[in-house]
Write a structure and sequence with these properties.
about 190 residues; elongated; transmembrane; alpha+beta; five-stranded antiparallel beta sheet; OB fold (Dihydrolipoamide Acetyltransferase, E2P)
Length: about 190
Amino acid sequence: MVYVKWVFRVLVWVVVAGFLHYTLPQHDVARITDTYEKRVDFGENSIFWANQGTGEAENTVNRDVFFIQSFRTNGKPMIYRNEDTGWGWPPYFKFDTSNLQAEAADLISKKNDAKPQWVVVKHYGWRNEFLSIYPNAVSIWAVDGPDVRIIPWFNIGLLTTLFAIFWAIRVRWKRFRANRIDPVVDEWTDGWG
C-alpha cells in the first residue's frame, strides 16, 4: 500500500510540474528566418492549440494560423505558432497576433548577414515534431547578441508564491490532524483494546 501511495504522489507532482512547464512563460534567444500563414485542420492534437481567435466563429474545424520560423543559438530550428489566447487559458490576454507577426517579419535575419539580428521570443507550450505541437509566441524583442541572459523573474516569483501557499496549507493540515483527528482516532482505537 505504501508503494501505491508514493506512485500516486509522484504522478500528481509530475502532472503539476508538466502543467506549470507548459503554461509558464519561457524565453528563447533565436534568429528569425521566416514568417508565414498556414491553414490548419485540427485533429487529435487540438488541445495544444489556442481556442478560436477573438472575433472568429465558434467550433471551426480549421483556421489560418501564423507561424514564425527561427534558429536558436545552438543552430537547431524552432517553429512557433502565433495565435491569440484571448480571454482563455493560459491567461496571457494576447490579442495582437497580427502586430506580433509584423514585428517578427521586420526582425528577419539570415545566417550569412554581416551582423545577424538576434531576438528573444517569449512563449509558452512545447514543441513536438511527432505530434505537430508548436509553442505559442507571446512577444518578441531584439537583443544585442546571442549571449544575452534572461532571468525569468515572473516564474521565480510565481513558483515561490505557490510553494509558500503549499507549505502553509501543509503545515496547517498537519497541525489540524495532530490536534483534532489523531486524538479522536486514538480514543476510538483504545476502546477496542
